[in-house]
Amino acid sequence: MDNFKLCPNGHYYNEQLSDCPYCPKLQNTQIPNVVNDDKTVIHHSGGGDNSDKTQIFTPPATGNEGSLDKTRIVNAPEHQPIIQLGQVRNSRKLVGWLVSYTIDDNGVDFKLFEGRNSIGAEAGNDIVLANDASISSKHLTILFRLGTFKYKDELSTNGTFINDVIADEGNLADGDMIKLGNTVFRFRSAV
Fold it and tell me: Given the DSSP bridges, would you call strands 148-153 and 140-145 parallel, antiparallel or unpaired?
């Protein structure tokens, strides 16, 4: 391997170059105890308690309070929750799912929450099934209360079938098949 040098990190590179092009350059990087506010700074408490967590915070009082034009990474407190941007959290507890392979061959799931869950073709329902013309605007309500799942057909035109039997209301058990129009669901309980 003529015309090549070996850097301390084990990279071979052209001997005409002064530095290894594969190794990171640490110029202008300041690690802890930095006062210069125009650079990215990584703070670590050194205590080892929260070294695997990060947090972005507002710069200290230097005349640009509230400025987010700099990135600072520090240890996050253990009690801080993880929040994913772009997600809106439902205020009700997740208690079950409806899974369908008739809507999509790969499967589609719909979450069921505490309280009332309305299903139908109309946009105001919790679960909207607008692509099945045989589903009524408000077809079925599934209610979770006191540890029990109840269902009620909302006087739909084509009825609701639970395990291939037409039914107006009753209780759901984990694994029940629900058929609304031409759409079939498997009910799954999370509780």
Answer: antiparallel
- The per-residue pLDDT for range 176-187, each reduced to its tens digit, is 999 999 999 999
DSSP string, 27-42: TT-B-SS---TTS-EE
The residue to which tokens 């209780």 are assigned: 171
Tokens of 56: 């972005």
Measured between alpha carbons, how far is 48 from 130 in angstroms, rounded to an integer? 54
The pTM of the full predicted model, rounded to 2 decimals, is 0.54
Nearest to 190 by CA among 129, 140, 149: 149
Q: Name the residue with tokens 């929750």.
A: 81
Task: Give the integer Cα–Cα distance in Å for 45 and 53.
Answer: 11
Using pLDDT thresholds of 50, 70 and 90, give the confidence band for residue 5. Answer: confident
The rounded distance, in Å, linking the Cα atoms of 58 and 66 is 6
Query: 160 forms bridges with which residues in the sheet?
Result: 180
| Residue 75 tokens, joined | 């240890």
3-state secondary structure of 169: strand
**Measured distance CA(145)–CA(175) in Å, rounded:** 18
Q: How many CB atoms lie within 10 A of CB 135?
A: 24
Q: What is the pLDDT of residues 42-58, one digit of tens each?
A: 555 454 454 455 544 44
